[in-house]
Design goal:
579 residues, alpha/beta, Rossmann fold, twelve-stranded mixed β-sheet, six-stranded antiparallel barrel, 31% helix, 23% strand, elongated
């Protein structure tokens, strides 16, 4: 063979012969049992293709051993009885992955996903190892344009070969990074952000639920720009504090947050809320002389309005008396007494310090230009990668906060001129907390709808999701089903494993069986971002996120709890702030 060929096999080095072929897998019987001892599930196997310069490449999915009885027809005894001998057989099932060609038209050494032909019965198969494996892995990297390369790590099968994904394909159609606690998820996210930082205009927004990515925003050369959702004790306007004022809420979000659907008067409350919000937004625009927007806006348009005025008008409706049938008489108005509980609920929300980021923002957040600044901060490329810390947001309102922010970012991106859009990815850390597989209330449902809309339609407008979770079984099936690429780290829970298996072709079932056996930092990368679905060892990021994993046994032997630290914790709990 030519010295430049990637795969070179000698006839006497064959592992076995094919005896069964179907549309997704090939069965072979091992003929070299010594060589079989060096092969394991996950090894790459090559079959002769339709001609001498073509090989079909697959992954060993299953190895079984059985005994086959064979009649020794030439050894029958004097009574004519034919003896039977039991013969050991080692059977290999291989899932076909792609096709290697030494020559493909004018091109040399090409590899493509899928198979155009199938191995013939009785044809040889070989294990891809040593130099063949190194050259094949190198070919996969070389075929990818340099500007598209996203280096993730090295192949477990050959640590000298780099595992490189197609960065465009990874983010174009959504991706999921899944793994149990301690499997290396946060390090994997940090690695991807670090690689993206090397680009000229990276545009990612990370929803950081526990503040663990803070180290990436610090130091003389930070990887990302940090923001934090304002907590109960934050009242001043700071550059890195984010508020989401009430006027950003659309009609459905307002109703989900404020209405009790079980009340008889809920329809009346919804009607008056919508009426007054639209009225107040129109008055604001007219007072500002913005006739162009005033003629086109809807009740869902993010236009500032006074919360105090809204409460006053609802109270007026609730107490309104109208002329009665008799002269100089009065009777209760159409909404008299029907909004009492609704107004009380709105006031309670406005006074709840936990909702300070929404109902108690600084004055500049109630101005028309404020939303322009938010869009520039979170969607502009001057800031590059943005990390938003949600750690001080109470868990019961977390879905609302994340959902509103995601919807606003999506809608701003949607209304950007197509030729002026720069793609943006929302990194949804701990996605199971706000993208649940089943919703508990209307507020959660509204938040989930925002992400499901992005999952279904975002690709058309250049906005994608990177879903990160330790419990994929608790994540919305709609969102996960839209993900075309999966970086699956160790998953020990059988329900979580079944979710990943369900999203994969049936032929890949054997590969997914390795999920609970992966080491920390090892992953199965599945999807069109990597030509071969295979096991890789992820690189360690240069800036590591704050690990939430405590060394219990070690710290019990080294660290004493101080009384003053507990007192400080109690006071922080009372203030609802760690600062």
């Amino acid at each position: 063979m030519n010295d430049t060929d990637v795969l070179e096999f000698l006839p006497d080095s064959a592992l076995g012969r094919v005896f069964r072929v179907d549309t997704s897998s090939v069965w072979a019987e091992a003929t070299d049992h010594d060589r079989l001892t060096r092969v394991g599930v996950g090894s790459l196997i090559a079959f002769q293709g339709s001609n001498a310069s073509e090989y079909l490449v697959g992954m060993l999915d299953r190895v079984t051993r059985d005994l086959q009885e064979e009649a020794l027809l030439n050894d029958f005894d004097e009574d004519g009885v034919v003896p039977v001998e039991a013969r050991q057989r080692d059977l290999l099932r291989v899932v076909l992955l792609g096709t290697y060609r030494e020559a493909d038209g004018t091109k040399r050494n090409t590899f493509k996903r899928g198979a155009d032909s199938y191995p013939l019965v009785e044809s040889h198969c070989w294990v891809i190892e040593g130099l063949n494996l190194q050259r094949l892995m190198g070919l996969l990297t070389q075929q990818l344009d340099v500007e598209k390369q996203l280096r993730l790590g090295t192949f477990v099968a050959d640590s000298s070969a780099r595992a490189v994904a197609d960065g465009d394909r990874l983010f174009q159609r959504h991706a999921a990074l899944l793994g149990s606690t301690g499997s290396g998820k946060s390090w994997s996210v940090a690695l991807i952000l670090e690689r993206a930082k090397a680009l000229e205009f990276p545009n990612l927004v990370v929803f950081d639920m526990h503040g663990e990515y803070g180290p990436l925003t610090e130091g003389p050369k930070p990887i990302a720009h940090g923001f934090r959702i304002a907590g109960p004790s934050d009242s001043e306007s700071e550059a890195r504090l984010l508020h989401l004022p009430w006027w950003l809420l659309n009609q459905e979000e307002m109703q989900a947050l404020l209405l009790d659907r079980s009340e008889t008067n809920a329809p009346n409350q919804a009607a008056r809320l919508t009426h007054h919000v639209r009225e107040l937004k129109l008055e604001y625009l007219e007072a500002a002389g913005n006739s162009e927007v005033a003629g086109r806006f809807t009740v869902d348009s993010p236009i500032p309005f006074s919360l105090d005025d809204l409460i006053s008008r609802l109270e007026r409706d609730d107490l309104e008396m109208v002329p009665g049938a008799r002269a100089n008489s009065e009777k209760a108005g159409p909404f008299n007494g029907k909004l009492t509980r609704f107004v009380a609920r709105l006031k309670a929300r406005a006074e709840d310090r936990r909702y300070g980021f929404m109902f108690g923002p600084p004055e500049d957040a109630v101005g028309y230009e404020w939303l322009h600044g938010l869009a520039k901060d979170l969607l502009g490329t001057k800031q590059g990668i943005k990390i938003i810390d949600f750690s001080e947001v109470p868990s019961d309102i977390l879905p609302i906060v994340v959902g509103v922010l995601a919807r606003v970012l999506y809608e701003v991106h949607f209304w950007t001129d197509e030729e002026k859009r720069t793609p943006v990815t929302l990194v949804c850390d701990e996605a199971h907390l706000y993208l649940p597989s089943s919703v508990a209330d209307v507020a959660e449902a509204r938040a989930l709808e925002s992400f499901e809309r992005i999952a279904k339609e975002g690709r058309k407008y250049g906005i994608s999701l990177l879903v990160v979770s330790q419990r994929p079984s608790d994540v919305s099936r709609t969102v996960l089903s839209q993900c075309n690429n999966f970086i699956a780290l160790r998953l020990t829970n059988d329900q979580d494993q079944s979710v990943v298996k369900r999203l994969m072709p049936d032929s890949m079932e054997g590969i997914a069986a390795a999920l609970p056996l992966l080491d920390v930092g090892e992953a199965l990368v599945l999807g069109d971002a990597l030509v071969l679905p295979t096991r890789i060892r992820l690189d360690v990021p240069s800036v590591k996120p704050t690990s939430a994993t405590k060394n219990f046994w070690t710290e019990w032997n080294e660290t004493e709890v101080q009384d003053e630290d507990l007192v400080a914790a109690v006071e922080a709990m009372r203030k609802q702030s760690r600062s």
